[in-house]
Specification:
The complex is a heterodimer of chains A (about 475) and B (about 80). With about 475 residues, chain A is an all-alpha fold. Helices cover about 75% and strands about 0% of the residues of chain A. The interface of A and B includes residues 262, 274, 277 and 328 of A.
Chain lengths: ~475, ~80
């Protein structure tokens, strides 16, 4: 069940209605039941796996935090991290390599996300940053919270628990954020998807401009799709009184690759920075630049392999590791150069922006392609088909529909403009000085347009669910 | 060494590591307040502090730091213990 499906849109008002009339002391339990129902409706096995992992980590965290012995605490921490890592790796491997007569095993829903939540909890308890959780219901809700279970953002349990009981509900803000996310998904991502899908599954027959279109379009589709899912998750969180961590901050405005990774999938990169990169960097700090390069490489390979144990994700991680190492090791010299030559500052920023965007697009080809061979064919083919420029895009348009692509691109342009000029902030500022009947009329008009839009788009899709790209991780 | 003295000495280290000669540190400052201070160069800062004060931090200590004040307090404590 996706957040843009008819099924969810029917259940959602019911959930919210019950939640808002419940006494506050029952809200956490309600969220826990709703979260397990959400996972259980997809797969009972997934719900059971999450319950076992949660109970195990809760008990291990309690033991690690409460035992007076440093040695026993270390043992509990090490055992929990090892078991959780093994489980995660097992399902990541069996998802791509058949396991005897069982064939390929699909990972339980949300495994990558809740495993990281559980790991951060045990590490934080072991490091003494937080006290072990005392209330199991609250802890289990922090792990299973349904808006974040399918695709994050990865909210640390300590951050979630500090907001309980969830008294600060924000219905209108939450609905607005959800509507924005649904608009992005249905109008942009889903309209770019057919063209991207066609290009990546025809790398052997397409050439030149058509393949180049795939090179540029997939990162846009991914951003619209994944940030839409984040918007919906954060909006749902606000409705239920939980403020979650942001995942994106206008990533395609970054002028360096390190800046880019501070803006893209932030909840994952922050998690890895705290629990993988920093400990590695501390351990290798006496090795100078070599230690830095090694820590970055392991960290970025982890970013790639977190998505799945395939060669494509490995290349994606390795390329980004190479970019980051190059960026970080030359950062000081570049800063000194631009300080000494201020006239080059602005052109340098533009060149950095162009280079960053293209380097990321290049890595994303390996992320999206079904096989590394397809990715290499796309990268080689986009330069070699100049003679077929006139016929190739025409066949692409005939196969996927020009109108769909144009709607997607126009929607993307609106998205970039909206993120640049933030009309929502402007509206929030003037709302305070506007009579309630005016802003409620505007809200009602917007809500009607959004609902009608979602309804029309869903009807056009024939009521089919359109899964989010990041739900498969 | 007390926390105020440590903060004063840390200012020099910060200015050098982040290449900002006019930077003034306060207790409540965080990474978000200092340009270029991110997870990638955080450990460069820690190494520079270790060298300057001839002390050693553990991973657990480093990950527990939230503000410049926390770093100054920990540095002062470690430097005093090392003397």
């Amino acid at each position: 069940m996706t957040f843009t499906s008819f099924k969810f849109l029917l259940i959602f008002p019911l959930l919210v209605g019950i939640y808002y009339v419940l006494p506050q002391r029952c809200r956490v339990l309600f969220l826990l039941i709703a979260s397990y129902a959400f996972v259980g409706l997809t797969s009972v096995r997934a719900a059971a796996a999450m319950a076992v992992a949660t109970i195990f980590t809760f008990l291990a965290g309690k033991y690690a935090g409460d035992t007076g012995s440093q040695q026993r605490s270390y043992f509990a921490f090490l055992a929990t991290i090892s078991i959780l890592t093994l489980c995660l790796c097992f399902f990541k491997i069996t998802a791509v390599l058949p396991l005897g007569r069982f064939g390929r095993l699909a990972a339980p829903l949300g495994l990558s996300y809740y495993t990281f939540k559980l790991m951060s909890y045990v590490i934080d308890v072991y490091w003494g940053k937080i006290e072990p959780a005392r209330n199991f219901t609250e802890f289990a809700t922090a792990i299973a919270f349904f808006p974040q279970i399918a695709a994050g953002p990865i909210q640390r349990p300590a951050d979630f628990l500090s907001q309980l009981p969830p008294t600060q509900t924000a219905l209108w803000m939450g609905l607005s954020r959800m509507a924005w996310g649904m608009g992005k998904k249905l109008l942009i991502a889903d309209n770019l998807a057919p063209t991207v899908g066609y290009i990546f599954s025809h790398t052997h027959t397409l050439h030149g401009a058509s393949l180049l279109a795939g090179f540029y379009l997939f990162p846009l589709q991914m951003y619209a799709d994944f940030s839409a899912l984040t918007d919906i998750a954060l909006g749902l969180g606000l409705i239920f009184g939980i403020v979650g961590p942001e995942n994106f901050n206008r990533p395609f405005t970054a002028s360096s690759i390190s800046d880019f990774w501070r803006r893209w999938h932030m909840s994952l990169t922050n998690w890895l920075a705290d629990y993988v990169f920093t400990p590695l960097r501390m351990a290798t700090r006496s090795a100078g630049s070599a230690g830095l390069a090694l820590s970055i490489t392991i960290n970025m390979l982890a970013v790639g392999l977190w998505h799945g144990f395939t060669l494509g994700y490995l290349v994606f991680g390795a390329l980004n590791a190479a970019y980051l190492v190059g960026d970080v090791l030359t950062a000081r010299r570049r800063t000194q150069f631009f300080k000494a030559n201020p006239t080059f500052d602005r052109p340098g920023t533009w060149a950095g922006w162009l280079l960053t965007a293209h380097l990321f697009c290049l890595a994303m080809v390996f992320f999206r392609a079904n096989h590394v061979g397809d990715a290499l064919r796309l990268l080689a083919g986009m330069w070699s088909g100049l003679g077929t420029l006139s016929s190739d895009p025409a066949s692409l348009a005939a196969a996927t529909g020009t109108q769909t692509l144009l709607i997607g691109l126009a929607g993307y342009a609106i998205l970039e403009l909206a993120e640049r000029f933030r009309p929502d902030l402007w509206w929030r500022r003037i709302e305070g000085t506007t009579p309630p009947w005016v802003y409620w009329s505007v809200r009602l008009a917007i809500a009607t347009c959004v609902l009608a839009g979602i309804f029309l788009v869903t009807i056009r899709q024939g009521g089919h669910d359109s899964p989010f790209l990041y739900q498969v991780f | 060494m007390d926390k105020t003295q440590a903060l004063l000495a840390l200012t020099e280290v910060f200015r050098q590591v982040f290449d900002q000669p006019t930077l003034v540190l306060t207790d409540a400052m965080t990474a978000a307040d200092v340009q270029n201070w991110d997870s990638l160069n955080h450990i460069d800062l820690i190494v520079a502090v270790e060298k300057k004060f001839k002390i050693k931090f553990t991973t657990r200590e480093v990950t527990g730091l939230k503000t410049v004040g926390d770093l100054a307090e920990l540095t002062a404590k470690k430097a005093s213990a090392a003397q």
